[in-house]
Design goal:
Length: 428
């Protein structure tokens, strides 16, 4: 195959496309508008915390086969800390209850029969609502399929909804369950929970997102003499008939020869601006992360890699060394993305102290709130229906990115798979 593939956008989608093409020995030229690669999946040094933090807390599951295959290609699987078991600790800040969801390894969900391993307040028959998800229509929402008049209630609350569907909707789709696509939720359940505990072991970057997903890809490319161009924002795209003929970056234009191809691995909003003729999902959804740096690394029971919170503003707590990081998903829909940092951090710290059983007088050395307003696209059925395919009406243009039609939600797994799909389509 002759010609070069020009890849614009070096988040994990663009990097995934680049390494897959490089693996096949195909020439690539890479560009990103920022001064570093990684996009939304990267680490950086935070001056206030005086340490490196991730742009957002990222959780993967062992069923994320595209992410694992990408890391295997790069020799970087060890950068992920893969928990030995599919075990998730939870605390309900209203009732004070603590529990563990612990899936057995096989696909037969025996854990549902064991009170010690399943969700308290939920009966076996309540889980029957999950059986509706494989048949979800394109317009179905999680609320539409999960709410049931017959499910077990405590103080009037549907416990399965409150302790499973709602947290899953926030965590997986970054969208409230009244709006979140049930079909996308099923795509994740099918590749993880439905395959049993072996596919549900939590995976978290051991050192940081850049060390795991970005630096090894850049090293893999550098070993093949491929050096990306950074600080090259794409401003305009030249089109003649059904072909891309020119990429106009801020400082220069690149001519696309008849043998060349282009992969645009840009965020949704950039794509909408640059090529209004391509269908893109409607809007974005925010995630807020708070980071607290302690004087000393956490130890013992407080050093939980991951803790889910119910009836709290915080959805998840991650700990790594002396850093406690919180995730609040769907923060805009929940009205939690605009509180001033000085008001919000103390509220969140109070939740941390209860959740991690820290003494009431416990304090932190430094803290930081990060609002990512465009964390993912809005994953409602109407918006999902607008996701474009890898191949476009333009003969030499391919798309990648977590918002393209991978069949998966906007996650690292979805983004990496989208890049692999674009590389595969080009290699055919
Ligand atoms: C706070 C937060 C928490 C998250 N939590 C999780 C999680 O727990 N688990 C999970 O799997 N996923 C999570 N995600 C989602 C995950 O980070 C994304 O799905 C993934 O990183 C998207 O990768 P991408 O390559 O598609 O897009 P991006 O990372 O957005 O990459 C796009 C690239 O294009 C570049 N670019 C933009 N405009 C231009 C231009 N005009 N010209 C040239 N280059 C340009 C950008 O600099 C960027 O490098 C989270 C995201 C956030 C923000």
């Amino acid at each position: 195959m002759s010609g070069t593939t020009h890849i614009v956008g070096l988040g994990v989608a663009g990097l995934s496309a680049a390494v897959r093409l490089a693996e096949r020995g195909l020439p690539v030229t890479l560009y990103d508008g920022a001064k570093v690669a990684g996009g939304r999946c990267r680490s950086f040094h935070d001056a206030r915390l005086d340490c490196a933090i991730d742009n957002g807390n990222h959780l993967l599951l062992s069923g994320n086969r595209s992410a694992l295959s990408y890391l295997d290609l790069l020799g970087a699987r060890d950068e992920l800390e893969i928990q030995p078991d599919a075990r998730f600790d939870f605390v309900d800040l209203e009732s004070g209850e603590r529990w563990q969801v612990a899936l057995n390894r096989g696909a037969l969900p025996l854990w549902l029969l064991d009170r010690e391993k399943s969700i308290p307040g939920v009966r076996l028959r309540d889980y029957a609502s999950a059986l509706r998800f494989p048949f979800a229509s394109q317009t179905a929402t999680i609320d539409g399929l999960s709410k049931s008049r017959t499910s077990t209630r405590t103080n009037g609350k549907d416990m399965l909804y409150q302790r499973f569907w709602e947290p899953m909707s926030w965590a997986v789709l970054n969208t409230t369950p009244d709006r979140a696509s049930a079909r996308l939720m099923w795509a994740v359940l099918r590749e993880t929970f439905a395959r049993g505990g072996a596919a549900c072991r939590p995976m978290i970057a051991r050192r940081g997102l850049s060390e795991t997903f970005v630096d090894p890809a850049l090293a893999y490319l550098a070993a093949r003499k491929i050096q990306p161009f950074f600080n090259e924002p794409l401003k305009e795209i030249g089109i003649e008939g059904d072909r891309i003929t020119r990429l106009d970056f801020a400082e220069r234009s690149v001519l696309i020869t008849p043998a060349d191809r282009v992969i645009l691995a840009l965020p949704r909003a950039q794509m909408a601006k640059l090529m209004p003729e391509i269908s893109v999902p409607d809007g974005d959804a925010a995630i807020v992360n708070a980071h607290f740096r302690m004087q000393e690394p956490l130890t013992g029971a407080q050093a939980v890699p991951l803790l889910g919170l119910v009836n709290a503003r915080t959805h998840w707590i991650f700990t790594r060394g002396a850093i406690i990081s919180l995730t609040i998903s769907a923060a805009d829909a929940l009205g939690l993305d605009r509180l001033p940092e000085e008001e919000f951090l103390p509220l969140l710290w109070d939740e941390v102290k209860v959740a991690l059983r820290l003494p009431a007088e416990a304090s932190y050395a430094a803290a930081r709130l990060i609002r990512e307003r465009r964390a993912t696209f809005d994953q409602s059925p109407a918006s999902v229906a607008k996701r474009p395919k890898t191949r476009t009406a333009f003969e030499n243009l391919y798309l990648a990115g977590d918002w393209t039609d991978t069949g998966l939600p906007a996650t690292i797994e979805g983004a990496i798979r989208s890049g692999a799909m674009a590389a595969k389509a080009i290699s055919k």
